[in-house]
Structure prediction request, 113 residues.
Amino acid sequence: MPLRPSMTVRVAPLVTGLFAAAALVWVVRMSVRNRRRAVGGYAGAESPRVTADEGPLDLWEVREPDEVPTDRGRLMPYELGRTPNKRSATQYRRRWSIGSSGGFGSGGIGRTG
Prediction:
C-alpha cells in the first residue's frame, strides 16, 4: 500500500507562500506610504538646483587630488587624514580611448601603443 502525504504536508507550502507574498505586499505599501509622508522625498537627500526657466541643473566638475608633501619623509596613512582635492584647472573629462584596456580583470590585452 503506497504512503500518501497528509493534507497538512500538501497545504503547508501553499499557506507559507501566500503568507510570504502578503508580507511583501504589506512592506511595499508601508514604504510607499512613508515615502509620500516625507517632506521633499527622502529625508536628508540633496535636491538638485532648480531654475524657473530650465528646470533642474545637472552640475558636475572634474576634481583632482592635492599633491602629497614629500619634504617630511615617509608618511603613514593616519598622517594623511582625509584626501584633500581641488577643482581641476582643465575641466576635460577623461574618456576611454581605443587600444586601452578595460577594467581590472576584463581580459583585455592592455595598451599596445
About this structure: The chain has a mean pLDDT of 75. The longest helix spans residues 7-37. The beta strands are 50-51, 55-56, 63-65, 85-87. Residues 43 and 51 are 22 Å apart (CA to CA).
